[in-house]
Amino acid sequence: MGNRLTQIATRTGDDGTTGLGDGTRVRKDHLRVQAMGDVDELNSQLGVLLAEPLPDEVRQLLRAIQHELFDLGGELSMPGSELLQPEAVARLDEALARHNATLPRLKEFILPGGTRSAALAHVARTLARRAERSVVALGAVDAVRDTPRHYLNRLSDLLFVLARVLNRANLDGLGGDDVYWNSERLKRQD
């Protein structure tokens, strides 16, 4: 394992740069730092979601995802490293299929809402999409493996499905179903 932080306020970033895991320093607005920050924000949002009442299976899955996101952040901070394994994408695919199989087919677009936990899962979904866009932007100018991009793409899909699962779990008594978009255009088509 690399060096552990023993001091948080080092003041080395006062000049607008930050150190990567490989020791190089880059500007804090570098695309790599943006991607790392977006992954960190996503992981933090999952921490907020984990503070809610959740079904045990969902809680265990989200905790595992947090560790994988930390691996992803580490990989982004050390150019050329491979910390997030392709098996992590396969685990998301399996969880996506398993949870999606329990849900009714969508009748319409749904809005982010319902239970508090479902709404928080939707926020995490949007953060996963942002992190994915940041990784794609970084990959356009610097080497990034496919696994991080695949992982974030799958994770956003899984978080959408988990929001639907959490609405049905209805652990706060405020949900029970998806919140469907009330489209005037679609009403006229019926």
From TrEMBL:
GO MF annotation list: ATP binding; corrinoid adenosyltransferase activity
Family: Belongs to the Cob(I)alamin adenosyltransferase family.
Quaternary organization: Homotrimer.
Domain of life: Bacteria
Group of enzyme by EC: transferase
Key words, A-Z: ATP-binding, Cobalamin biosynthesis, Nucleotide-binding, Transferase
Region (Disordered): 1-23
Biological process according to GO: cobalamin biosynthetic process
Annotated organism of origin: Caldimonas thermodepolymerans
EC number(s) recorded for this UniProt protein: 2.5.1.-
Cobalamin adenosyltransferase-like domain mapped to chain residues: 8-165
Catalytic reaction(s) noted: 2 cob(II)alamin + AH2 + 2 ATP = 2 adenosylcob(III)alamin + 2 triphosphate + A + 2 H(+)
Protein name, UniProt field: Cobalamin adenosyltransferase
